[in-house]
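Human:
Class, as today's exercise, you are to examine the entry below, and be ready to discuss the fold:
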Amino acid sequence: MKNLRVKLEYHQENDYLIPNVAIKNNLGNYQIGKYGYLRLDYLKRIKKGYYTELMLEGTLPEHIVAIDKEANKQVRNIIKNLAKANNVDEMLKERSPFEWVRLMNNFKNTAEEIVLKELIYN
């Protein structure tokens, strides 16, 4: 954090030096999803120092987008692997749609619980 103070540029307003801090938006039109917002909220409430550091460095948007993309990817992969391991396929969907929905919802909840614990709230 000490090195960060040296890198900052300041401008003077009256008797105060104000840091020139701006967020770079080189993310394109990526829409942050559920996991990105959960991570952002977690950083703001629990990891305030890390949140401030990311803000001052200008890397918060990249961090949130990376977490959101990785979380979505992991949830999809975990659901796919759980479905494959439990023989939940299109045949089950045709034979017993309610059973298929129940199992897929269970897999999604399991996958989200894993991702939230390991990626979002860590």
Observations:
- Helices lie at 2-7, 34-45, 48-57, 60-85, 90-95, 97-120.
- The chain has one domain: 2-120.
- Residues 15 and 100 are 67 Å apart (CA to CA).
